[in-house]
Design goal:
The complex is a heterodimer of chains A (115) and B (116). Chain A contains no helices and 11 strands. With 115 residues, chain A is mainly β. In chain A, strands 2, 4, 5, 6, 9, 10 and 11 form a 7-stranded mixed β-sheet that branches. Chain A has a 4-stranded antiparallel β-sheet with strand order 1-3-8-7, with no helix packed on it. Helices cover 0% and strands 50% of the residues of chain B. Chain B contains no helices and 12 strands. With 116 residues, chain B is an all-beta fold. In chain B, strand 10 and strand 11 form a beta hairpin. Classes of the chains: A mainly beta (115), B mainly beta (116). At the A-B interface, strand 4, strand 5, strand 9 and strand 10 of A face strand 5, strand 6, strand 10 and strand 11 of B.
């Protein structure tokens, strides 16, 4: 069964450094998402992306965050000048269409640790 | 106000028994979808089941069923014949369709422990 893949599985970065989290969504999917889960807390929406532009973003997704689909397969989340509070599990997800009953399929996540 | 409330931080069940995980939601949008995801200790998020607000029947997927009570705004997940592999965190999530949004709003989750 096709799946969303994320790399790396664990990223350790010094505070203030830039980090890029990578995702390969399911190949025929059109909508892409990033979520984060701070340890022990609920999953929070960051951003959705469709047709090469952001379709929705949350308050968390401020100027230090950006997303990009640099080619036909990858979808990236960049965090500029990381902060300690950016430490979390970051999930990429994709869905086939924006259809109402379309589940978002999640990758296994990237655990980001900011030191 | 919380849009998704899961009041059970932890639930315990014996193997082969059924268990119900509670989820209540809050929305003024008449058109919405409710999703349940499973997160094992390894961390991945696995989609389990979907219920639309206009669906006439409760959703079922194998051993998973959704007890949808629209007037009470509840969408409880029922797992029948629990297995050891069902031990995980379970999240209820909602998407509000008339908001034209795509975000899933998650609850805080319920940890299910299945014992033999």
């Amino acid at each position: 069964e096709p799946e969303v893949t994320q790399t790396p599985s664990h990223q350790v970065t010094q505070m203030g450094q830039e980090v890029i989290l990578r995702c390969v969504p399911i190949s025929n999917h059109l909508y892409f998402y990033w979520y984060r889960q701070i340890l022990g807390q609920k999953v929070e929406f960051l951003v959705s992306f469709y047709n090469n532009e952001i379709s929705e973003k949350s308050e968390i997704f401020d100027d230090q965050f950006s997303v990009e689909r640099p080619d036909g397969s990858n979808f990236t989340l960049k965090i500029r000048s990381t902060k300690l509070e950016d430490s979390a599990m970051y999930f990429c997800a994709s869905s086939g269409t924006g259809g109402r009953n379309q589940p978002q399929h999640f990758g296994d996540g990237t655990r980001l640790s900011i030191l | 106000a919380q849009k998704i409330t899961q009041t059970q931080p932890g639930m315990f069940v014996q193997e082969k028994e059924a268990v119900t995980l509670d989820c209540t939601y809050d929305t003024s949008d008449p058109s919405y979808g409710l999703f349940w995801y499973k997160q094992p200790s390894s961390g991945e998020m696995i989609f389990l089941i979907y219920q639309g607000s206009y669906d006439q029947q409760n959703a079922t997927e194998g051993r998973y069923s959704l007890n949808f009570q629209k007037a009470r705004k509840s969408a409880n997940l029922v797992i029948s014949a629990s297995q050891l592999g069902d031990s995980a965190m379970y999240f209820c999530a909602m998407r509000e369709f008339n908001q034209a949004g795509t975000a899933l709003i998650f609850g805080k989750g319920t940890t299910l422990s299945v014992s033999s």
